[in-house]
Amino acid sequence: MDRAPSTPTSMVLSVLVTCVVASAALTFTYEMTRERIAEQERVAREKALKDVLPAATEFTAVDANVLSAAEEAAGDTQVAAVFDAGESGWGILVAPRGYGGPMSMVVGVDRNGKVTGVKIITQNETPGLGSKVMTEPEFLPQFEAWDASEIEKAAKAFDAISGATKSSNGVRKGVLAAGHVYADVLSGEGGGSKQ
Amino acid sequence: MTDWIATFKRGLSIENPLTILMIGLCATLAVSTKFEGAFFMGLAVIFVLTMSSMIISALRRVIPEQVRIPIFIVVIASFVTIVDLTMHAFLPPVYNFLGVWIPLIVVNCVILGRAEAFAYHNSVSLAVADGLGMGTGYSFVIIVLATFREFVGSGEIVFMNQRIVALPPSYQGPGIVLLFPGAFIIFGFMIAGARWVTERQGRRVVETSKHCTIEEGRAL
Amino acid sequence: MIDMLRNLALLFIGAALVNNILLTRFIGLCPFFGVSSAMETSVGMAGAVVFVMTLASSATWVFWNVLLEPLGVGDFLYIPAFILVIAALVQFVEMYLRKAMPGLYRAMGIYLPLITTNCAVLAAATEAVKPGFFKMNIAYGFGFGEAVVYTLGVAVGFGFALISFAALRERLDVAPVPKIMRGAPMAFVTAGLLSLGYVGLSGMFGI
């Protein structure tokens, strides 16, 4: 079969053309899907926030300096965002590490430092084992009414799911981190002044 | 037409990429914990394999031999990115479950292997048949494996949030089936089964493509 | 300083053993089964992977931080861009070795083309710039030094698993295995048992 000869010009040219066409196609696909992806993520996050703080009507992200103070307070666990829900309290988005990598979850804390709810947005735990942290009916509710200002004490009484210890501990770590964020940063009326 | 059907069927049986050629294993073992994940992974592979085979075959006369690999890779990577973005936008739960395995389709030996061994030397229609056949063969094995693992391990099969089959909640499956070590062991038995069937039919075809393995100290 | 060294050491061990890319993440299985039938090829492959993976991650780290991220195209162009960088790098390494170090080329040359399609290389390179992406339990961004140490850890873990598996397979060749299980099927079962050992390490050092 007659194939195009491998001369330097033809080689450079063909790779170049392929790359340009490919990037154009991808840019187009990206533009087509970008809004939908952002929308999906916003909806998922909004829904989780609503679940842990049902009375809240509006969620506003806190200032960058409050967020960085929160990141410091949380130690090893990553804090993705903190939302101020007015009278209802705060929604704290944390990403603790489970068995299959970071899980994205929301912890709701009210103005008095009570944990109002915990909701996992996404996780990558082993299906059927670690993923039970999302489906087990008694697991997530146990965090409710934990006292965020004395979170270490509350965390002593904790039931992990058998067969999913690492994933359960991941969730616990996330709630602990949120407790620290409340105690160190938010309890000072969200002023960003640490301690 | 008979050629077309014969090419299509090869991927399903005597040249099945997973059980016979044993290429493209990583994703297979990793995502086969859930029927749903395996199903969409299969679809993604069929799409990428067929589309890239088609494009590469159509352009086979203008792709210079010495730079064919980079060009194949860019073509494949583009289709993979299209699948990645589309799934992210329209099937977020599946996207989240498959995670890294979608981008890693790029380096799935099945796809580059077929581009190199088949699409670059054959007509567009045969290349499409080969892509569809290989993709279907791949999907078939991964779905069987996932159905077994999900059912035995967690006692139910869930598809798009619908429970299709479920054992009573008191069923406690052996967790090892769902973990990494279990995947290796079950797949080992599966290959043994597939080989047994192939051998009983009196056929023995093993062809492995370049870039995927080494035999007797030489890259094939 | 001590703290930094300690963190780097933990990062290395975590990447090499606790989160072993082959046996706990399933990434890079094709070469794992493809070349492990003989000790000699495994050692060659392991060496080539350590070499190329570290180089590739350094290259993609620079590429990402200098070009893709500032231009804002990283999200949708990183897959083609990285794989192309890796493929080009492998080509150049091959050409350079053949000219400059024929001895090393003879030992490593035949493995180089295979590395382009080794998913472990792409995975490690991507993880080094998009932490957390490949679920290897990293929760913060990497500097250049950390990226290199991390990748080196992944690569050494890859090589270690590959060589130990090859040693097991050499023994298996003379073991009385039922005919139907001989070869690949038994290799998978063995890999499962080996993987069981690595899974036991998970969670050590809090990594």
Secondary structure blueprint with pairings:
The complex is a heterotrimer of chains A (195), B (220) and C (207).
Chain A: H1 8-52, E1 60-61, H2 64-73, E2 78-84, E3 90-95, E4 104-109, E5 115-122, H3 132-135, H4 151-154, H5 165-184
Antiparallel strand pairs in A: 1-2, 2-3, 3-4, 4-5
Helix pairs in contact in A: 2-5
Chain B: H1 2-12, H2 25-31, H3 35-58, H4 68-90, H5 92-98, H6 109-117, H7 124-154, E1 156-159, E2 162-166, H8 180-200, E3 214-215, E4 218-219
Antiparallel strand pairs in B: 1-2, 3-4
Chain C: H1 2-18, H2 29-35, H3 39-71, H4 74-100, H5 102-108, H6 112-116, H7 119-129, H8 144-172, H9 184-199
Helix pairs in contact in C: 1-8, 3-4, 3-7, 3-8, 4-5, 4-7, 7-8, 8-9
Descriptive notes:
The complex is a heterotrimer of chains A (195), B (220) and C (207). With 195 residues, chain A is an alpha+beta fold. Chain A has helices at residues 8-52, 64-73, 132-135, 151-154, 165-184; strands spanning 60-61, 78-84, 90-95, 104-109, 115-122. Chain B is mainly alpha-helical and 220 residues long. Chain B has helices spanning 2-12, 25-31, 35-58, 68-90, 92-98, 109-117, 124-154, 180-200; strands at 156-159, 162-166, 214-215, 218-219. Helices cover 73% and strands 0% of the residues of chain C. In chain C, helix 4 (74-100) packs across helix 7, helix 7 packs antiparallel against helix 8 (144-172) and helix 8 packs across helix 9. Chain C is globular, with a radius of gyration of 18 Å. Chains in contact: A-B, A-C, B-C. The interface between A and C is medium-sized, with 18 and 16 residues.
Compact summary:
The complex is a heterotrimer of chains A (195), B (220) and C (207). With 195 residues, chain A is of the alpha+beta class.
Oligomer: heterotrimer
Q: What average pLDDT do the residues of chain B reach?
A: 83
Count of domains of chain A: 1
What is the typical, i.e. mean, pLDDT of chain A?
A: 82
Low-confidence stretches of chain A: 190-195
Largest sheet of chain A: 5 strands, antiparallel
Which outline of chain B best applies?
A: globular
Largest sheet of chain B: 2 strands, antiparallel
Number of strands of chain B: 4
Give the terminus-to-terminus CA distance of chain A.
77 Å
Low-confidence runs of chain B: 207-211, 214-220
| Annotation field: number of helices of chain A | 5
**How helix-rich are the residues of chain A, as a percent range?**
40-55%
Strand-residue fraction of chain B? 5-15%
Q: Which chains have the largest interface?
A: B-C, 50 and 54 residues
